[in-house]
Write a sequence for this structure.
């Protein structure tokens, strides 16, 4: 019987899901190991998505919430692979505003100029819905400061949508 690398990784996550971690550092170490395995599996292999889903489920069950460390690592993997949709999704859950802004800036280079403000406002609204105002503010700050077509960190901004987002974050 032939067992693939991805099958072994799925078995590892199954074993980890049955283990009780007393030390949070040990848990984070295993999160990093599993993320490293995910990165090594070709993105076109079907079992990779299953592994990602099971890893998220395991890490969420262990901490009783979405694991920002795992989502940060997954966002970086997806960004490296230029899978912007998944990178954006995981960056929203990473609690890392700088990473989220970096992904949005890279993604916006493929967007129309008229969409540059909509991209960040949509993410700010998503983060506010997730009740993560600090990450929303950090993402907005880095995006407006480092985006090549905005490059300002203080209002008033050139577009009404950016001013609207700034207002939402400061009320």
């Amino acid at each position: 019987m032939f067992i693939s690398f991805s099958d072994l990784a799925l078995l590892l996550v199954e074993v980890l899901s049955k283990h009780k971690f007393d030390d949070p550092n040990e848990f984070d170490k295993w999160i990093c190991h599993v993320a490293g395995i995910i990165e090594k599996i070709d993105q076109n292999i079907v079992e990779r998505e299953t592994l990602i889903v099971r890893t998220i489920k395991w890490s969420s069950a262990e901490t009783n919430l979405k694991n920002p460390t795992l989502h940060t690592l997954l966002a970086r993997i997806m960004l490296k692979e230029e899978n912007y949709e998944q990178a954006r999704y995981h960056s929203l859950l990473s609690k890392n505003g700088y990473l989220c802004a970096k992904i949005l800036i890279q993604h916006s280079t493929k967007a129309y100029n008229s969409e540059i403000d909509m991209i960040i406002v949509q993410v700010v609204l998503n983060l506010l819905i997730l009740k993560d105002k600090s990450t929303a503010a950090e993402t907005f700050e880095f995006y407006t400061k480092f985006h090549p077509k905005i490059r300002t960190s203080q209002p008033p901004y050139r577009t009404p949508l950016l001013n609207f987002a700034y207002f939402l974050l400061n009320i």
Notes: The chain has nine helices and no strands. Residues 141 and 153 are 6 Å apart (CA to CA). The chain has a mean pLDDT of 92.
